[in-house]
Amino acid sequence: MNQTKTLKTRILVSACLMGQPVRYDGRYATKGPDQLIQLQKDGRVILLCPETAAGLPIPRPSAEINNDQVVTEDGQDLTQAFVLGAHKALELCQKHGISLAILKENSPSCGSNFIYDGSFSGKKINGAGKVTELLKANGIRVFSEIEIDKALKLL
């Protein structure tokens, strides 16, 4: 019985990590690590870009978290869109019974260990993006693309 459950386990993955050009700059982060490509072929990967799911365009201005607000360099407040994207990610996880996510590090949505410091200087700090915060608060384990092996051991 447990083996059957394991075979059906799905994971949430940032779409930009699997070759979808959804990043703020209209690019993707990677074409997809081999382990995730195989899981995707097996129907176990659910892709999401929370920012585009919330209606933000491609390309869009870069954004960083500053005092818990997500803002662009010119001061536009995008917090509501990022929070909406986080809720869409949570809904997707709940719909598919997902308890594990692999998300793009450094992102104001998906960062799990590091985010940019809000000064638009390229400096990173310990922190989490809006999606990661919400998923973790709801018991979903979140890993970055540099922790794929660690994450997949839990499947």
Report on the architecture of this protein:
By secondary structure, this protein is an alpha/beta fold. The chain has 6 helices and 8 strands; from the N terminus they run H-E-H-E-H-E-E-H-E-E-E-H-E-H. It has helices spanning 2-8, 34-41, 50-53, 79-96, 130-137, 148-152; strands at residues 11-14, 45-48, 63-66, 69-72, 100-103, 114-116, 124-126, 141-144. A 4-stranded parallel β-sheet has the order 2-1-5-8. Strands 3-4 form a two-stranded antiparallel sheet.
Average pLDDT for all residues: 95
Shape: globular
Describe the largest sheet. 4 strands, parallel
Total count of domains: 1
Q: Structural class, judged by helices and strands? A: alpha/beta
Please report the number of helical segments: 6
Report the radius of gyration as a whole number of Å. 15 Å
Largest sheet, spatial ordering of strands: 2-1-5-8
Instruction: Report the span from N to C terminus.
Output: 15 Å
How much helical structure, as a percent, in the residues?
25-40%
Note poorly predicted spans: 1-7
* Percentage of β-strand residues: 15-25%
String of helices and strands: HEHEHEEHEEEHEH
How many strands appear in the DSSP assignment? 8
